[in-house]
Amino acid sequence: MKKSIIFPISILLAIALFSCHKEEDIPPALTLDKEANMTIAELLSLYTVNNAYSYVEIPDSTVICGIVTSSDKEQNCYKYLTIQDETGAIMIVMKNTELYSKYPVGSKLFVECGNMVIGHKYRNKQIALLDDGAMVGIPKADEGFYLFTDGKAGPEPTPWTITSRDQIDSTYFNRLVRVEGARMQNGGVDTYCPDSVTTYCARYMMLEDSTYLTLRTSARATFAGELLPAGRCNLKGILVNSSSGPLLYLRSLDDVEQ
User: Fold this and answer.
1) What is the largest CA-CA distance in the chain?
2) Which end of the chain is more exposed for a tag (fewer CB within 10 A), N or C?
3) Is residue 240 included in any domain, yes or no?
4) pTM, rounded to two decimals
């Protein structure tokens, strides 16, 4: 009788110990014991040089917070994160090539901006580290010093609607936008990016008022070989600035509505 009692108790103890160890193995959520003390619009206002080879050091105590809008799951938004708050949006340059699982769309991200600079590349404002006079991405091993999130995906921000290129100004850049009533040039015939291209491919869309906007797709994007949508469509994605004007980057084909 004693053996029949001791045996199930020992199993229960083993299960309890195993459960405790399993709980201990779960890494705690990253937290930051500060609140954001600068809006993204205030951060953007620090950079007034507007020179591709000049950068502005961000004050050491600066903390910003925004909602993640970019995703590199389909490899089109590559080596960067975009976040936005109620006042603006900014691009964070990264070295990690697999960000989407750690920083999912809709998650809240705090950024400790000490040791970082703000500048621009091809007229698109971004924050990064500075190395030998050049802006460089945050190394994967150092992300924990600068980026803080619980990694929980929430609702993405409501995208800003675009129906004309003429309505785009600097407040749109690095934001999640939705282009309504677009028609892709050679839609249903051309692909997003042909095999002959090894970097990026530009495709053009005509908006409702007959102005044009550029859709840019990386040759590495998983959907590069898919056909462009035919007929009227709505496109959602990240709008960035460039030396040739605004560019729209899709995150995946889920951003295409027909």
Assistant:
1) 88
2) N
3) yes
4) 0.86
